[in-house]
Amino acid sequence: MPRSVPKVASRARRKKVLKLAKGFWGRRKNVWTIAKNHVEKGLQHAYVGRKIKKRDYRSLWIVRINAAARQNGTTYSRLIDALKKHNININRKVLADFAMNQPNVFAAIVKQASK
Fold first, then answer.
1. Helix axes 92-101, 103-113, angle to 10 degrees
2. Over the stretch 22-71, which tens digit does the pLDDT of each residue have?
3. For 9-113, which CATH class?
4. Where are the domains of the chain?
5. First to last CA, the chain
């Protein structure tokens, strides 16, 4: 009886990794052993990058809110505290958008929170 070889499945696995390696430089794109390592490392960086992106956006929103809050006579921390005390539930993304694009709405929110 002939020996069974997992040729189709292993080839499919290799093709999948080499497809992910498309655009890499040198042997990283077409040599299986090298491509496998670099694709794996690239996927790790992509995973971490998605977490860092969330962190960066939150800090950007905070900077924008703080700048707009200072123009309205308060600070970021006092504004967030006042919003929580008055049960005004607006997330930082929306608050930063108001601060950038609709300053009159942001000023009204600050006024409502500081009552």
1. 130
2. 999 999 999 999 999 999 999 999 999 999 999 999 999 999 999 999 99
3. mainly alpha
4. 9-113
5. 86
The pair of three-digit structure tokens given for residue 65, joined into one six-digit string: 């809110």
Residue with tokens 């942001």, as numbered in its chain: 106
Report whether 68 contacts 99 (CB < 8 A). yes
Q: Which residues, at least 6 apart from 1, have a Cβ–Cβ distance to it below 8 Å? A: none
Tell me which DSSP letter residue 21 carries.
T
| pTM score | 0.78
Q: Which pLDDT band holds residue 6 (cuts at 50, 70, 90)?
A: confident
Q: How far is CA 109 from CA 21, 30, 113, 115, in A?
A: 49, 57, 6, 10
CA–CA dist 5, 22 (Å, integer): 27
